[in-house]
Design goal:
- With 339 residues, the protein is mainly alpha-helical.
- The protein is built from 12 helices and no strands.
- Helix 3 packs antiparallel against helix 4 (97-119) and helix 4 (97-119) packs antiparallel against helix 5.
- It starts with 6 loop residues before the first helix and ends with a helix.
Length: 339
């Protein structure tokens, strides 16, 4: 028999969750997740596969559709991110005033970089603007992870929060080291960069693998049963699609995986090893979003983190990645009450 929770813990959980007001997802979260998924499927999967083999008209139409969904994800994500971060700033939710102020500054820097990249031509975007966006997004995601660690009340929640903090932190450290002078010539700097990049990618894959354990519904209601069934169907479908892609593309399969997710640790030895964490993330996201309620934000967060890829550098994917980590942090304030 499960031991009863201490009275102080229960009362605190019940008191905090209604006060945060995070039960309702920020506006346009679902639209942003759908548009970002379509953008990744078209820009990072379909276009590289088509390459020079398809007719120019087909490639042009796919590129136009990909640009449309990318811009739609940016617009919807900007609105959702503003609403999500501002609600955290207003409610507090255990976040100190300096952290909230720092988070607002980082949000402004990120949105500035996104606006510059969206409104200007791509060749006008400087490397300084890109690195500023990367740093602001990673810092903001680290703050979200730290807030999730502070409010986590179960072992699984703490593990997820630590992973959600480690991914942007290690990515930020690796990116900082990559722009250091002589990083490719200095053996110590190169070795440090390789270690940080590998640890960051492993944290990212572990976060994807752990997401079904945390967010797939366990209730026995008809909707929860249907959501679980959809999740397992998604798992099987993604594994089957990746197997078909590996059989069809042969040596180019690893390149496709890199285009879609910017991962590299297993590409040379075992690129199909990425199939399970990718399928697990999509299964958890679809199941949680179908289950709805408190799980909806968590599912949308996992989906946005996944479609953004590991350590993205384009402002649009940085925006969706940040929104994903914000949603995961918001979901923590709801899940520790339930568990």
């Amino acid at each position: 028999m499960r031991a009863p929770e201490p009275q102080g813990t229960v009362s605190r959980a019940v008191a905090v969750a209604p006060r945060t007001g995070f039960e309702v997802a920020p506006p346009l979260v679902g639209l942003c997740a759908l548009a970002a998924t379509c953008s990744m499927a078209l820009n990072q999967v379909a276009l590289p596969v088509l390459g020079t083999h398809a007719a120019a008209l087909v490639t042009m139409r796919v590129a136009r559709a990909g640009a449309f969904f990318e811009n739609l994800a940016v617009i919807a994500g900007t609105i959702a991110l503003l609403a999500g971060v501002l609600s955290v700033v207003r409610a507090g939710a255990g976040v100190s005033l300096p952290r909230r102020a720092f988070g607002l500054v980082l949000l402004v820097l990120l949105l500035r970089a996104v606006a510059i990249a969206t409104l200007r031509e791509r060749q006008d975007t400087t490397s300084e603007n890109v690195y500023l966006a990367v740093g602001a997004a990673d810092f903001l995601c680290v703050l979200c992870g730290m807030a999730a660690i502070d409010i986590a009340r179960t072992y699984l929640a703490r593990v997820l929060a630590i992973l959600a903090t480690s991914v942007p932190l290690l990515s930020m450290l690796a990116t900082t080291l990559s722009v250091a002078p002589d990083v490719h010539l200095d053996p110590w700097k190169r070795h440090s960069y390789d270690i940080l990049a590998a640890l960051g990618e492993l944290s990212y894959l572990a976060l994807l693998l752990a997401s079904p354990l945390a967010f797939m519904p366990r209730e026995r209601t008809p909707r929860a049963l249907f959501a679980r069934s959809a999740g397992f169907a998604t798992l099987g479908a993604v594994l089957a699609l990746m197997h078909a892609a590996r059989s069809t593309l042969q040596a180019d399969f690893g390149l496709l995986v890199y285009h879609a997710q910017r991962v590299s640790l297993l590409l040379d030895r075992w690129p199909f090893g990425y199939a399970l964490p990718f399928a697990a993330a999509l299964a958890a996201a679809s199941s949680a979003m179908i289950a709805g309620g408190r799980r909806y934000q968590a599912g949308a967060g996992v989906l946005l983190v996944f479609v953004s890829g590991y350590a993205p550098e384009t402002p649009g994917r940085l925006l969706t990645m940040t929104l994903g980590f914000v949603l995961l942090a918001r979901a923590q304030t709801l899940f520790f009450e339930e568990r």
